[in-house]
């Protein structure tokens, strides 16, 4: 067996490229992880101030769980969490159903003024959600839906459904209709082809729309602050503002600890739906 000699220059260049690649990855990872680390060390600080960005302050000498203890055991955190999860779950259910059905119709049905409707939906996604706060409040107060779960869920679902319909339409356009037509030739009805072929293939976009809808409702403050006046219906964002902002000063350790606790459900959801989200991110139309 004849072994080929490796050119030393080629080996050195390969090692240099590998070293540069690892160095860049380490730098990018440090930039990505640093904000999370900064929030965590701030939440463990006994002083309600932000740590200065210096090596000494980034390695805390005193660590305390006082902020977490106050939030979990001296405040109705679980009540606020329950309210947020109720609103987020209801928003996900409506947004996914309405968004998926609308996106399916835009992708598969030949309807009149289809291009105009798609462009209109696309333009609507440009407007920030907060601009609808005042008109929604005026309309929902007339319908006696203020300070109710139903009103806030409907308000959240509107914008999420529009954006979800646009994303679903883009995703389904990348799935050939041949799959459904072949299933119908084999004897399935149109509904059977939808449930057995198209719906399972649409799991990634359903997971993606669910995640966006959940995060939109779970982390919202503007609508919740306007629509909710009863203390027993407060969400996590309202509770965070109530605890962290006192006498026009911010308790940054409490704010950071609340952020860490709020981020746990989102982190779990990201882990559960990771494989579906990777498939969606791979599509150029939804990046």
Indicate the topology.
Blueprint: H1 8-43, H2 55-58, H3 66-73, H4 77-108, H5 114-124, H6 133-142, H7 149-173, H8 178-185, H9 190-201, H10 203-218, H11 222-227, H12 236-244, E1 245-246, E2 249-250, H13 252-272, H14 274-281
Name the descriptors:
mainly alpha; two-stranded antiparallel ribbon; MetI-like fold; 287 residues; flat
Brief rundown of the structure:
The protein has 287 residues and is mainly alpha-helical. The chain is 72% helix and 1% strand.
Structural summary, described in words:
Helix content is 72%, strand content 1%. By secondary structure, the protein is mostly helical. The protein has a single domain (75-286), classed as MetI-like (MetI-like fold, Orthogonal Bundle). Strands 1-2 form a two-stranded antiparallel ribbon. Helix 10 (203-218) crosses helix 14. The chain is flat. The model has no long low-confidence stretch (mean pLDDT 84).
Number of discrete helical segments: 14
Radius of gyration: 25 Å
Shape: flat
Largest sheet: 2 strands, antiparallel
What is the structural class?
A: mainly alpha
Mean pLDDT metric? 84
Approximate helicity band: over 70%
Number of domains: 1
How far is the first residue's CA from the last residue's CA?
A: 49 Å
Which parts are unreliable, with pLDDT below 50 for 5 consecutive residues or more?
A: none
Query: CATH H-level name... which superfamily?
Result: MetI-like
Strand content: under 5%
Oligomer: single chain
- The counted number of beta strands is 2
How is the largest sheet built, in terms of strand order? 1-2
* CATH class (first level) name: Mainly Alpha
Q: How do the SSEs run, as a string of H and E?
A: HHHHHHHHHHHHEEHH
CATH topology: MetI-like fold
- What is the correct CATH architecture? Orthogonal Bundle
């Amino acid at each position: 067996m004849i072994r080929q000699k490796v050119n030393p220059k080629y080996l050195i260049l390969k090692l240099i490229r590998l070293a540069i690649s690892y160095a860049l990855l380490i730098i990018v990872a440090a930039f990505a992880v640093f904000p999370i680390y900064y929030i965590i060390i701030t939440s463990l600080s006994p002083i309600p101030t932000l740590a200065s960005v210096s090596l000494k302050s980034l390695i805390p000498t005193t660590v305390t769980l006082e902020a977490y203890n106050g939030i979990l055991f001296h405040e109705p955190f679980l009540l606020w969490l329950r309210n947020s999860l109720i609103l987020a779950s209801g928003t996900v259910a409506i947004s996914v159903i309405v968004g998926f059905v609308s996106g399916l119709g835009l992708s598969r049905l030949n309807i009149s003024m289809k291009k105009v409707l798609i462009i209109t939906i696309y333009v609507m996604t440009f407007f920030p959600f907060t601009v609808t706060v005042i008109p929604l409040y005026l309309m929902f107060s007339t319908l006696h839906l203020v300070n109710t779960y139903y009103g806030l869920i409907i308000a959240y679902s509107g914008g999420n459904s529009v954006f979800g319909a646009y994303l679903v339409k883009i995703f389904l356009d990348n799935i050939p209709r041949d799959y459904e037509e072949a299933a119908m030739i084999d004897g399935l009805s149109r509904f059977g082809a939808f449930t057995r072929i198209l719906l399972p293939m649409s799991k990634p976009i359903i997971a993606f729309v669910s995640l966006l809808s959940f995060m939109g409702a779970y982390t919202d403050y503007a609508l919740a602050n306007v629509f909710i006046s009863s203390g027993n219906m407060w969400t996590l964002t309202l509770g965070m503002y109530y605890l962290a902002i006192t006498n026009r000063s911010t308790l940054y350790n409490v704010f950071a600890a609340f952020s860490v606790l709020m981020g746990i459900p989102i982190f779990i959801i990201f882990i559960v739906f990771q494989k579906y989200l990777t498939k969606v991110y791979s599509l150029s139309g939804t990046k």
